[in-house]
# Entry
Amino acid sequence: MRGDLERVLFDEPAIHRRLDDIAAQISNDYRDRELTVIAVLHGSLMFVADLLRRIPLPLKLECLSAASYHGKAETSGEVIFKLDEASASGGGQIELPAVASRDILIVDDILDSGHTLAAIREALETAKPRSVRVCVLLSKKKQRAREVGTDYVGFEIEDEFVVGYGLDFRERYRNLPYIGVLRKELLEQPDR
Ligand code: IMP
Ligand code: MG
# Structure
């Protein structure tokens, strides 16, 4: 898999050092209130697991799935919420996590066009949480289709397609322990 990368941006120690900083900030900011973390799957899987183990506070964890890429390297703009089998309520309706009056922290892998996080934030706000903050591991420096305020950002990166540490291209590369830029020609190949 390493050969499919043009270059590595953040190796494992660099990611873990940055997680120490963000976790310390979050732990300080939420020391007096109980946090409800909303992990946006699957991209945030590694990030949220490593981050939460560094936060020594009582907290709740909820997960939701949303996708806007549909196997391409560019967002389609349309965000689809998917649900866990476990939370499917009879007719297969989307059931958002219980967030009323809670202090929620949305955790996602990467902020790109902004469509996904804007849609998730909007959907969660209808359930009247007490506060909403956003934490992303990566934020692309670019003009966004939808502006999304972030409260905790791991790293700012250029507008390139990256994989690893949870981030995928067509569901692959999530298990790389580091983050790197995928070779451009791979983005154009038909799916295997
Ligand atoms: P947005 O809706 O365009 O902000 O896209 C956010 C979602 O697209 C993220 O949660 C990722 O799953 C995916 N995504 C955006 N950029 C990248 C990338 O460079 N590599 C892998 N996935 C990405
Ligand atoms: Mg993805």
The pocket of inosinic acid (ligand 1) is lined by residues 43, 68-69, 75, 108-117, 161-163, 167-168 (CB under 6 Å). Strands lie at 5-10, 35-41, 59-67, 80-82, 103-111, 131-140, 152-157, 162-163, 179-182. The first strand starts at residue 5 and ends at 10.
